[in-house]
Amino acid sequence: MRGRGCISTAEEDLQGTEESEQGGGGCSSTATEKGKKGGQDAQEVLLVSIRTDIREISELIRTMGYRIRECVIQKRPFSDKKYYVGEGKLQEIKELIAKLGVQRIIVNDPLHPTQIYYIEKETGAQVVDRTLLILEIFAKNANSVEAKLQVELAKLQYEIPLMREYVHRYKTGEHSGAYGGGEYLVDQYYDLIKRRAVKIKATLEKYRMARELQRKRRAELNFFTVALAGYTNAGKTTLMNALTNENSLADEHMFTTLSTLVRKISVQKKRYLIVDTVGFIDGLPLYVIDAFRSTYEEIYMADVVLVLVDASDDIPEMLRKLNVVTSQIKQYANKFGGSNNSDKKILYVLTKIDCADELKLQQVSDLIERDYHARPVLISVHSGVGIKELIERIDACVGGG
Ligand SMILES: Nc1nc2c(ncn2[C@@H]2O[C@H](COP(=O)(O)OP(=O)(O)OP(=O)(O)O)[C@@H](O)[C@H]2O)c(=O)[nH]1
Ligand SMILES: [Mg+2]
Predict the structure, then answer these.
(1) pTM above 0.90, yes or no
(2) Is 60 exceeded by the pLDDT of residue 17?
(3) Which residue puts its alpha carbon closest to atom 11 of ligand 1?
(4) Measuring CA to CA, how many Å separate 268 from each of 265, 271, 396?
């Protein structure tokens, strides 16, 4: 096999979920997540892109613990159907791979299985497209049984069309060797991953139902739920820690948080549950969002959603990320939440304002007000600015103040 198989034997019980509603107390994820981040040898990779903006993919590569040895950029309006880049560029890549001894190519876009097949066939290197890179980061950071199953399901959904491509090439005689077990075994493996996906879906549905019950219980106990949403690395966990005296892992890497964490706070005699969960990113395929449905639902179903925007980014980047987050929330709230979500209260929050000058904050606030009809709250957790106002705004949202 090509070594992409991701069928695991993760325990399928409803124990080990990371969620906890205890006030204070340690977050069991912290140590595990820290442990997983350290000590990984930097594997060298070749980055290939048809766009010049490689900031985000470079960040993802760093987060995964890889090191970019060389970067090949061929500016094109759309990718080549077979090789992603043109044939001439592919030759260049082939020579580079041989010269540098690099075994992985990271591609700055999601690829079609046919493209993966042909690039791997030509170069002999393993191709990791943007989607798989994100899934690898998810796999590295998943620390609860539920998160592990969600990642496994997403990886299987990624794998199935790729398998289909390889099976097709194998059966037409175009590909040999990789599936040394023969046609029968290939079919068997294909069936196995499909069956495994069905089984995981059923288990995840149980988790989802359990969360739904939990939400009902919280509502009956008059808790207001405040979800922290935002692009990955926006500063959600840092804010969660500040609001709840928690000490969850927050760092400069992407997708540090993958499991949901719920903590109680009380404000003006009202009881709130603050929910920190997985971040958003551009271009995440639907099946990944679907696999993480129970997790993202914590955002869609909250009474108030804080949409965090990282003010240390430049203005176009802030608006791009904000657009990704709000359109994904809208899209999936409609899909999963029905009409309940039409009156959801969203508060826009510019975070890390200690890293931005007055003029930039003024300009981006005006743009957000123009496009989203609400003035953002400006905060810096590091300096403490704006936190009091944020709490007041949350309280006002649920009918207080
Ligand atoms: N300067 C500054 N940095 C901040 C502030 N808030 C968060 N950060 C930094 O931003 C980085 C990301 O913070 P996190 O809280 O991990 O962000 P997140 O949104 O939870 O990220 P993921 O869980 O990876 O999606 C960390 O290095 C934080 O120290 C702030 O107010 N000012
Ligand atoms: Mg986080």
Answers:
(1) no
(2) no
(3) 252
(4) 10, 8, 11
